[in-house]
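TA notes, week 10

Several of you asked for a full example with nothing omitted. So below is the full record: structure tokens for the whole chain, then the designed sequence directly under it. When grading your own attempts, check the secondary structure regions first.
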């Protein structure tokens, strides 16, 4: 790290507690300070340019220099820079955006609830589920089942939904009434010789057993990311959601699709709900809703949920819920412009056109001696490193294989992200071209080659 007193690096270390960062390591290494962005590229304060292979945090779908979004924000800033939506107040961007979201929703939805982040959207959805069941006179039906390996945010309740230990340890999470069931990752959890379809059947049977043991009258909802993001960019195995949804239906359990990463084209459809034929009662979305230019998220609820919430609120006088920034006009204006741009630029068509190249490049790494699995759909994917391919043995976390690749990739001008169990994720801006996809993977290959040398020299394993 630059030792210059009062350098931006030193000032950062002195003043910021960073998310998902080891604070002690940060004191030694300092930050990578990004200063500019253009298309799929970002530049740091030292003038180094990187391909942003993760679209930031799975979010900047339109890249880093979209003038239309800038214009939408500044025009709305001039007109009405802020206003709330409490007490029957509203604003035009929020109305237009809500209408548009209901129009493109993949299943019939009745109302849009606005918040500011994915964590908040998932927190709110929990409150809606609880409120709904109280309104129906079912105060016992409160438990929500999420999955091991799932990620739904970090607030107290959305962090409880998250099924990754690092987000619970030391934080006294998960809270009461939040349960977890097995991950949908067939490669990691499938038995020897078990097909994807059989694994899905087993997972659905395990879920049913869990519901029976808990008592169906106590289980209110099930939440899932169609493609697990932070848990490893893991695609659902064949038949998984069909079998899971049948169980939920049988026990009158609401299904919530967390589309925070998958929504708005990532899997080659506007929503992964279409890709995997889901029938959610509620959906949460954020990130690419505004290409992450401003914080905004949304919860879509179906009419049955809305009517129940509405009737009960009428009885007590008001729906006692809301944030100062729910339906913020500037964030809504930027989101609306983002959705317009998706249509004008046929982003879905573009993703479908280039995703073949993306998937071919990722899948080509299956030939590599230390790659156990590759996963890809649309423009999201991962390369899973493995110590021994045939037995699917993971490297020891202390070997630091995925972090090593990611650090080397950065040296080669590519920002990507390590995920649990030595996966490396790719989730570039949706505007990426085929040539840029090649450039991205060419840089990755250099890092993979460096890793092979490290594995041989440091860990003493032969390719
Ligand atoms: C699937 C999913 N849900 C929820 C969240 C939480 O979103 P936020 O970081 O905006 O709170 C994330 C964040 O990465 C996510 O990937």
């Amino acid at each position: 790290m630059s030792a210059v007193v009062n350098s931006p690096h030193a000032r950062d270390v002195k003043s910021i507690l960073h998310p998902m960062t080891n604070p002690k390591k940060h004191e030694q290494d300092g930050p990578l300070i990004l200063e500019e962005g253009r298309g799929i590229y970002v530049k740091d304060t030292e003038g180094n340019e990187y391909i942003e292979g993760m679209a930031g945090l799975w979010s900047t779908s339109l890249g880093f220099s979209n003038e239309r979004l800038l214009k939408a924000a500044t025009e709305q800033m001039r007109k009405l820079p802020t206003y709330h939506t409490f007490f029957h107040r509203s604003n035009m961007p929020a109305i237009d955006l809500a209408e548009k979201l209901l129009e493109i929703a993949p299943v019939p939805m009745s109302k849009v609830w606005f918040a500011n982040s994915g964590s908040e959207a998932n927190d709110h959805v929990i409150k809606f589920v609880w409120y709904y069941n109280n309104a129906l006179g079912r105060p016992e039906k409160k438990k929500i089942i999420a999955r091991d390996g799932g990620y739904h945010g970090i607030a107290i309740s959305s962090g409880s939904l998250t099924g990754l230990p690092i987000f619970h340890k030391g934080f006294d999470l998960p809270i009461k009434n939040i349960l977890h069931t097995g991950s949908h990752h067939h490669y990691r959890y499938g038995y020897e010789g078990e097909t994807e379809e059989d694994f899905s059947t087993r997972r659905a049977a395990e879920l049913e057993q869990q519901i029976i043991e808990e008592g169906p009258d106590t289980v209110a909802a099930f939440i899932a990311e169609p493609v697990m993001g932070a848990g490893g960019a893991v695609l659902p195995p064949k038949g998984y959601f069909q079998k899971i949804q049948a169980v939920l239906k049988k026990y009158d359990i609401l299904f919530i699709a967390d589309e925070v990463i998958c929504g708005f084209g990532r899997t080659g459809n506007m929503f992964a709900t279409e890709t995997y034929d889901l029938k959610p009662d509620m959906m949460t979305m954020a990130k690419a809703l505004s290409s992450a230019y401003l914080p905004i998220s949304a919860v879509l609820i179906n009419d049955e949920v809305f009517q129940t919430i509405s009737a009960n609120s009428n009885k007590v006088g008001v729906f006692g819920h809301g944030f100062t920034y729910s339906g913020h006009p500037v964030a809504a204006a930027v989101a609306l412009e983002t959705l317009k741009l998706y249509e004008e630029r046929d982003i879905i068509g573009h993703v479908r056109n280039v995703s073949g190249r993306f998937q071919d490049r990722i899948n080509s790494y299956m030939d590599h001696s230390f790659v156990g699995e590759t996963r890809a759909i649309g423009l999201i994917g991962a390369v899973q490193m493995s110590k021994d391919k045939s037995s699917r043995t993971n490297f020891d976390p202390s070997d630091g294989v995925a972090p090593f690749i990611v650090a080397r990739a950065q040296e080669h001008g590519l920002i990507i992200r390590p995920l649990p169990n030595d996966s490396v994720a790719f989730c570039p801006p949706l505007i990426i071209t085929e040539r840029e996809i090649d450039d991205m993977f060419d840089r990755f290959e250099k890092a993979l080659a460096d890793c092979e040398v490290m594995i041989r020299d440091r860990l003493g394993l032969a390719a």
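The chain has a mean pLDDT of 96. Use that as a sanity check on your answer.
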